[in-house]
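go over both lines:
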Amino acid sequence: MEEYEVDLRDYLRVLWRGKWIVLVTFLVAVGAAALVSFRAPDIFRAETVLKVERPLGLPSSYQPPSIEEVAERVQDDALLLSALGDEETVSWLQGRWTVRQEKGFLVLRIEASRSPAELAGVLRQVVKGLQDKYRRGVTEAITIRLDEIARRTRVLQGQLAAWQGKVNQAYQEAQTQREELLAAIEALKANPEVLVLEVGEQTRRFEGALAESELQLLYGRLTPVELLLDGVDRQGVYYFPQFASRAIAVEAELVSLAEETQELQELLSDPPSPIVTLRGPQGIDAPVGPPRRTNLAVAGVLGLFMGVLLAFFWHYLSSAGIERGEEGG
């Protein structure tokens, strides 16, 4: 087998002889890439950035979803179908959008050959569907809390009513006792021996002294009854120490529950969503694709590579033909 060395100049000589092959291959590759790239429609992008936040004023039992759950939920076929309205649009979207998490945020991005406004509109529908989905969970939590407040309110009002019933009973009994005492006092006052004195000796009759003593006793019994009636008239259930502190605590809790009910009802009229839009949805006016320059650069490199290969292949065929001719001669 004949051994020989190939100099770099031989390579350059082969390339120089096949320069037209290299040039034509390069131009064909670049031309084809330019034709495909510039005939392809422009690709536009629209995106939005979402975040999960716990809305203010919600019951403590409510737990917002995690960003991982939201990322999985937004790609659910049922949610997309509900938001977009038809399966064709859902199928189109699934092949052209990306959903990714970035530092606690959720980025939704669409890249397609439609106008930026149209792409932003599709994202807006998806975001609205997602927000409505989690808004229903907020509504459910508020409703449950309102039911709990209503039950607690009935219990507290029942306690106040029971205490008030006892106070009313005591008040009625005191009124009856007062009427009886007043009647007894009037009866004693009608007895002429009560205040009869012997003018000469300045002494009371024995019967009169007993009657006056009884009268004082009746007045003594009447005083606490009058105080009770007056105290209940002025203070109600708070007159009784055994009820006062508990009644104050119950009424304070009722006020707090009433305020919470009002706040929750206001929230229920327009429930917030834990899905908050930080940016967008918005479309980018400048096209993001296709990457024409990159395509041309790659095509140029591949064209040069193929041209060089074809030039050496042409040289190989030429050399082989020359050798066969010499052997035949």
About this structure: Residues 181 and 218 are 6 Å apart (CA to CA).
